[in-house]
Structures are given as C-alpha cells and as structure tokens.
Design brief:
The protein is α/β, with parallel strands linked by helices. It folds into two domains: 1-59, no CATH class; 72-141, no CATH class. The protein has five helices and seven strands. The strands form two sheets. It has a four-stranded mixed beta sheet with strand order 1-4-2-3, with helices on one face. A three-stranded parallel beta sheet has the order 5-6-7, sandwiched between helices. Strand 2 and strand 3 (46-47) form a beta hairpin. The two termini are 12 Å apart.
Length: 141
C-alpha cells in the first residue's frame, strides 16, 4: 500500500526462521510486481539497483535505529523498533500480536510524545488487520 503511493519503505528482515521467511515472501511479491529492492546489511554494504522501492535491513539495533531516525514514519510490530521510533518522536503504527495478556500489551507498547497508533491483531483475520492498517495510514499521511 505505501509503496504503491510512492513511499520509500525500510523492512527489517527480522530474526529467526519465521520472520526471515515472511520477509522473503514480501520481497518476492514486490519483485514479481517489478519493484526494485535494496538489501542493506549491518556494514551498510548493499546490493541494489538505483532508486529502490523497498530497502531491507539485516543487522544490529544501532544501524537500524539510525535508519529509523531518518524516516518520516515507522510501521512495525511489537519489537524494539517501536521504542526507538517513540523515543525519536517519529510517528508510528505498531501492530501487536501474540501477546499473552492485555496487561502485557499495555506494559510493552511504545510511549512518547509523537503520534503513536496501535492495532491489536490478536484473534483478528488478516483482511481485518490490513483494512485497519490502511485506515490508520490514510489518517496519518
């Protein structure tokens, strides 16, 4: 959705088999639609063509935080990136899923002075989460 609107997006490739596999599926889908992808690692070396539609990142929190600091908006799941964006007052949308209780969700969601919107995805269909995400993004963009 954001890429189709011309946004330059950064995707954290994740940690662990599940996250990496999901990232690969996203990249494969975008490539099949003719989108250019730049893959950046912790050393900031990269492989890409010019003017990427998506930048992916795999590495340490320090470099990822630097990328977030240069962004206009952060979209992520319940991970460290949400806290970095909140501390930097970068507007953000966070999707929470897989939390053991509402108390856990309240305790670990980001706090800050910037715009923070949270979607609780637990028990919701993928289509409903996507629609909620699009609605929030259209309000914030």
């Amino acid at each position: 959705h954001l890429i189709e609107q011309g946004a330059k997006d950064i995707l954290d490739e994740g940690f662990g088999e599940d996250e990496i596999e999901r990232s690969e599926r996203i990249m494969d889908l975008l490539k099949s639609r003719g989108k250019a992808i730049m893959r950046v690692n912790e050393d900031l070396s990269c492989a890409a063509g010019s003017k990427p539609d998506l930048i992916t990142y795999k590495g340490s929190i320090g470099q990822f935080a630097a990328l977030i600091s240069q962004s206009q908006f952060y979209v992520g799941y319940d991970s460290m990136g949400q806290h970095v964006a909140a501390a930097l007052e970068i507007p953000e949308l966070v999707i929470f899923n897989g939390y053991p209780s509402e108390k856990f969700s309240r305790k670990w969601h980001p706090y800050g002075h910037g715009k923070i919107k949270i979607i609780h995805a637990e028990g919701k269909a993928e289509e409903e989460i996507l629609e909620s995400t699009k609605n929030v993004l259209s309000m914030l963009s």
